[in-house]
Amino acid sequence: GSLIEQLTTEKYECMVCCEVVRIVAPVWSCQNCYHVFHLNCIKKWARSPASQAEDGNSGWRCPACQNASMQVPKTYTCFCGKVHNPEWNRNEIPHSCGELCGKKRQGLDCPHLCNILCHPGPCPSCPAFVTKSCECGQTSHSVRCGQSTKIHCSNVCGNTLNCGKHSCTQVCHAGKCSPCQLTVQQVCYCGSTFKEVLCGSKEEFSDGFGSFSCQNICGKKLNCGRHNCKQVCHPQPCQLCPRLPQVVYRCPCGQTPLSKLLELGCVERKICTDPIPSCGKTCGKPLSCGSYEFVHTCESLCHEGDCKPCSHTSNIYCRCGFKKKVIRTFGWLFLFLIAAITFMCDKRCNKKRSCGRHKCNEVCCVDTEHKCSLVCGRKLNCGLHRCEEPCHRGSCQTCWQTSFDELTCYCGESVIYPPVPCGTQPPECKKTCTRPHDCDHPVYHSCHSEEKCPPCTYLTQKWCMGKHELRSNIPCHLTDISCGLRCNQMLKCGMHKCKRICHKGECLIDEECKQPFCLTSLTWRLHLHLYTHLQRFMCCRKLNLMFFFFRIAAISIATKLTDLQLGDSVEISRLITKKEMKQARLQCDEECLALQRNRRLAEALEIDDNSDPFNIRSSGPKYSDLLKEDARKDLKFVSDIEKEMRMLVEAVNKGKHTKKSHCYPPMNRDHRRIIHELAQVYGIESVSYDNEPKRNVVITAVKGKSICPSNTLTSVLDKEMQSRPPPPIPHYKQTDKSSGNIGLSKPLKEEPVIDYFDVQD
Description:
By secondary structure, the chain is an alpha+beta fold. Among the domains are: 1-124, no CATH class; 459-498, no CATH class; 625-717, CATH 3.30.1370.50. 18% of the residues lie in helices and 12% in strands. The chain is built from 13 helices and 23 strands. It has a 3-stranded antiparallel beta sheet with strand order 20-22-21. Strand 1 and strand 2 form a beta hairpin. The longest helix has 20 residues, at 635-654.
């Protein structure tokens, strides 16, 4: 019904071309799955290599059900196959002839033909009724023709079972009856063992002596009545006694007939228990220890019974033939073979296995191929699963696992439809990335499968790490920006500022301030009662205690600065006691002792302290006053230039090349002059190129010629700053000498106002 409706309304699609099947188009219908195709489409499909069956001999496969057909359709017929090129009639089913179908129903035991009009799809079930018997055949019933269900009655089956003795006791059932489940007792041939078997089985057979062999020694009395049968339990009658006089014709070793021995005087045997005469020769029977190449024989005289064990020795080799072992061959042949099989050496095989990765490592190996039994375990191309094949050479096969879920990009615009092989990357997407971002700037990168987005490159304004200046055109993702200026943050000592280039974090974390400290303040002079003009250089960390007391004195005087300006006197002797001064006094260290020793030696040799006889002080680089003056104006620029020159000299001296150059960006004339003068100090060649305003300088360092001076221009300027004398102190008139107080009156002339709270300067 569904096929008829879709074909009539032209909604049915051909699976080959995916186009609608028109009511006037020639079609072909598969007789296995009943799918309808365009006739031309199915012809092209049948001739294509993709339609061929796997074995290559079964014809072509239906695109829908993969059922193989040998003949390629050539003509357009109706569904029942009776009419070629059927004409379309508005009142009939499309592609049908309008007559009775008449086809035989498939898969059913029905003799009636289909009695409806020509139609697509399978024929309906037969409406006729027939009489059928039940499974056991005792009852009959009227059922629909072609009914696949079996008829069962409630009677006992009663059919004869496979044993031919008993009947089936099951209720009416389908198929053959089950084998007889009754058991019977059987006895072995020798009569010593009994067992129970199913009735009707092959083991139930008996030949009159028994039904089976128990594989034990028979043990029945022989016909002589004196000896027992030594054969394994057997179905036939036992053999004659092997020692009967009428059976034995030769001596025990078999070399001499008994008739000849009787002529020599031996006693004739009457019964089986009489001894067999011996010939007296060597036995010579082959022993069981021998082989095809070396046969060992019995060396005893002719005797009855079994021969003695062999006294010879034999060489056996291990499985791989690496070691040899000597054993006595007194045992049976199978013992010799067992010894040869079980004897193995302890040598391990060093040959590579078939995989080429592992060694065989087997003890006493006899293999020729050395197959590897380990699992490969290497990661497949998908990167998720491992190879489960036996260890092998070469690359592993592609991952066979497949996903039947759609694989999409992050935003879902691009889709890869199933089946999706394992390891397939998400499809590329040209849409803008829709992931959440840390900033609100416009997004310029496309949708991606990586978890982390590319850094934001939107240009913004950001402060440097030291908060010195607001930098422009900085990419958004950059966080730690240095302006290149000095930090100038106050250190923990409270006296100095950081000299490092703009940096991140604290200036001094686990270190102490080691900058030199010039103690020339008003506090020092006031404490010494204006006695001398004293200047001392000390290490910052050594002045913590002394500076504490001097700071108190300075603050106390500064609070009464107004009174000093009006001519009043201030008592300062009680600010710092003698005990405090004693505690604040520094102890001489090794440096102080060395200076004192040099001073005494210079006085003894009458050497001027300002002289330089060995040209030690003048050995450093000489910088012109003009260069120093220009450097003080732009100290950061000079520091960067010297840093670049020092790096260039070190690189050319440590590298393989004899020359190394660096090109500076365009700059003004004053900056170019500074570079030329510094290049002379470093022994570097400098040349200016291009015209204004794009004129720039190129420096070239030469190995062996260019040097790094011991004192850079920046360090020289720092030392000069530290050694510069302090600003002049206004002179005050002492008013009261008799008392312990120091009186300070008004200044004799106007002096610039000094900020006495700035103790550091």
